[in-house]
Specification:
Elements (H helix, E strand, L loop, with lengths): L11 E15 L5 E9 L2 E7 L15 E11 L2 E11 L18 H14 L3 H11 L2 H9 L13 H19 L5 H10 L4 H4 L10 H5 L2 H14 L6 H12 L16 H25 L5 E5 L4 E4 L3
Parallel strand pairs: 3-5
Antiparallel strand pairs: 1-2, 1-4, 2-3, 4-5, 6-7
Helix pairs in contact: 1-4, 1-5, 4-5, 4-10, 5-9, 5-10, 8-9
Length: about 300
């Protein structure tokens, strides 16, 4: 079997993959075809089943593990798998764990580092808020396995934990360099800023938007989750509550990037910059890892630039 990351133009491929999505549609001339996304633990690739009713294509649906036969081609500089044969596999033919991307870092170690940051917060109300989430076994189980995105960055098991810990660590460093920053508020909200993604995205293997994710989004959902916990903490100061909600609402920095509010507090500005920094560096890192090029890798939509490896 050839892993997705190793696929190159012209490769003949036969192997078992997870069918993450399937859309049956038609060409401009009315010819039916299936647009699918196939995944293994190294990534995902777009696939086209140009003759879905041919004898070699058996009945299948999104969510199935399928054995496919096909050829890798390039379309708009992206790999595309043209599928000529497909069948649904039986349960004894695959191990689901081999098909889910996962962080390269140790999840237990990262969660331990996160709890160290939680314990380092002096503000008793913010500490109670953090503990209400991160010391709750049910939330911990969900958070440890969650992805931070569907495709753009940290789109793997443990991705939300890795991203949140990274942003909080950056914010902790910023607070030492810039004493004007309220360290407890900034680090707390860095840990909390993406909690809404635990409900915006379904867990793997789906890792796709839920109804709540499509209709509400993680920013609003996260602010609601934080509000519920703060309302349950006796005496939680109204001023502090509003600051927490503002930092969550403003963490994308700009209205056009999905934030309902632009940063009005210096801590909100710092959080938005740390979040953007980690997301973009991870996106760049993942592009470097996925590219076979030794120098220029082409235009990256998220980074809005032609990007190159450091020579």
């Amino acid at each position: 079997m050839k892993y997705v990351k190793d696929m190159e133009e012209g490769n003949k491929v036969k192997g078992i993959y997870y069918c993450k999505s399937k859309i049956s549609t038609e060409t401009k001339t009315g010819k039916p075809y299936d647009n699918i996304e196939l995944q293994d633990k190294t990534g995902a690739v777009n696939g086209k089943v140009w003759e879905p009713y041919s004898p070699g294509i058996k009945e299948y649906e999104a969510g199935d593990f399928v054995e496919i036969t096909g050829e890798v081609k390039l379309f708009n500089n992206a790999k595309q798998l043209h599928v000529s044969g497909l069948r649904v596999c039986t349960d004894d033919e695959y191990d689901p764990a081999d098909y889910m991307p996962v962080t390269k870092k140790n999840i237990d170690d990262m969660y331990g580092q996160l709890l160290v940051l939680v314990d380092s917060v002096d503000d008793k109300y913010l500490k109670q808020l953090l503990e209400a989430f991160f010391k709750d076994p049910e939330f911990e189980m969900i958070f440890r396995k969650a992805s931070a995105a569907k495709t753009v960055h940290h789109a793997f098991i443990g991705g939300l934990l890795q991203h949140s810990l990274s942003v909080a660590t950056i914010c902790d460093s910023m607070s030492r360099w810039y004493p004007v920053l309220d360290r407890d508020l900034l680090v707390s909200c860095a840990l909390l800023h993406d909690i809404g993604k635990t409900r915006e995205l379904a867990p793997f293997p789906q890792n796709d938007y839920t109804d709540e994710g499509q209709l509400v989004g993680h920013i609003i959902t996260g602010s609601q989750m934080a509000m519920e916990k703060m309302n349950a903490i006796e005496g939680f100061p109204v001023k502090r509550r509003n600051e927490v909600i503002h930092l969550i609402l403003a963490h994308h920095g700009e209205l056009e990037f999905g934030s309902p509010k632009k940063p009005a507090l210096i801590e909100a500005l710092a959080l938005s910059m740390a979040d953007n920094m980690d997301a973009k560096i991870e996106t760049f890192s993942e592009a470097i890892e996925a590219s076979d090029s030794k120098d220029w890798m082409g235009f990256n939509k998220f980074l809005d630039s032609n990007i190159r490896k450091t020579v």
